[in-house]
Amino acid sequence: MDDIWAYPYRLGIGLFFLASTVAFMVVFIGIAMWLEKALKDDPNS
């Protein structure tokens, strides 16, 4: 195990954290927009 495996390993972890962060933001924004829409539609109905 030389430095050859270190870079792809760190790159994979970096991509994993980046993808999980983006996915969390997308889900959080989607839930926030859905809650806002649900709260706006509630008094009208």
From TrEMBL:
Keyword check for Transmembrane helix: yes
Stretches that traverse the bilayer: 12-35
Record keywords: Membrane, Transmembrane, Transmembrane helix
Name of the featured protein: Uncharacterized protein
